[in-house]
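forwarding from the other thread:

> can someone predict this with beta-D-fructofuranose?

sure thing
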Amino acid sequence: MEEKKEKMLRPIFHVTGGNGWINDPNGLVLYKGRYHAFYQHYPHDVHWGPMHWGHVVSDDLLHWERLPIALYPGDGEDGCFSGSAIVWQDKLWLLYTGFSENGGGENIRQLQCLASSDDGVHFTKHGVVIGEKDLPAEYSPCDFRDPKVWCKDGWFWCIVAARAKEGRGRILLYRSQDLFSWEFVNDLLGEDSLGIMIECPDYIEEKGLLLCGEQFQPHEGNTHLNVHTTRWYSGSIDYQTGRFTVKNRGIIDYGFDFYAPQTFAYDGAMMGWLQMWDRNIPSEKYGFAGMLTAARKLTVKDDELYQEPIVKGETVVEQEVNGRICDSGKIGVLRITADNVKSLRLALRQKDGQQTTLALDGDEWVFNRSLSGESMVGVEKDADSLAGIRRMPFKKAAHTELIVVMDEFSVEIFADGKALSATVYPDLDADKITLDVDADYCKYVREKVL
Ligand code: FRU
């Protein structure tokens, strides 16, 4: 009985595939008043396999209900890769990448396909709508994926990740009147990415925000250390020329486990994949691998990106802190506010030498999961990665706000609008919390979620 319970262990309010593997969030959309989230899913194993689209739905981005798998490979596709959703004529439309192996290598094809649903549950595939003939000759049809669609001025617009045959990652802009027939507009940035390929581009017109993933990019100081990283660009698209003008740029999340974010059509909230490629995933032994982040609200102010988790729980502890506070809890939200903070160290999931910590060190937050229980080893060989460390900038200010979203197997840290996400696998009963703080004033709040 006990063993069965443990085998079924899952995060409480983060989306998983139930059983099996998941990666990127897909098709995030508000449809008929409910939030629909799809995700890259292989239900038959805890490893990546022929991609399906799993499906969950929610009224509040916190309680998720599982729906039947929306897209299955087949119909000439060896996998239904990432994509997005849009509502048109009362129907829910999915634009996704049909992946065909064709013997591999240069014969691989990644083309953009369409599916639709009248009820938001059952989907009908309509085949390829942005095919090889729609891809200018200088880009490779082997790396052409992850369409993100939106609507503006009577047109459907869509960006797709691509790779220049003689270069690296690109983002291509297309437009259409009916979702079935698409016209190439331009190469959005007109230059190669730093990494070898771009993945999962997203554009939020109302915020002037472009997001994307990058594969195998070089490190930049202590950032972009993960094998794959994410970037945001503030700026705007000129729809006449199809070019995006960059005003500012940055990393979306400083943590170990964050990739392939997407925003909800008609709402703008963002979710990402709370995991990373090419690492062992200790939850495999419980029958699942991969989860989505909690939903985040995005704001662009003075060309900077600010993120804030949308989750709100019921306050169970609210206390002023002067020195140290000890508490316990492993699932919920911590909200720590401090005025003129001089030092701060937060230790979570503590038990018998195990702990997950975040501490201020000069102009950095230093996150350390080296004592977080089961180790996670990836392909990254830099000193921080080997030491279980990730860093995030800290700017001295009169007021500092720290929010930590904790669930079974994860912590997502938000400090003054910046984010750092990581999975952790300590003992299941490791739940002590210690906060040491030196500030003019500090308040500690713990909220219970679900
Ligand atoms: C990003 C990604 C996408 C692709 C999908 C395949 O994590 O590689 O580019 O569509 O995963 O599962």
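DSSP finds two helices and 33 strands in the chain. thats all i got for now
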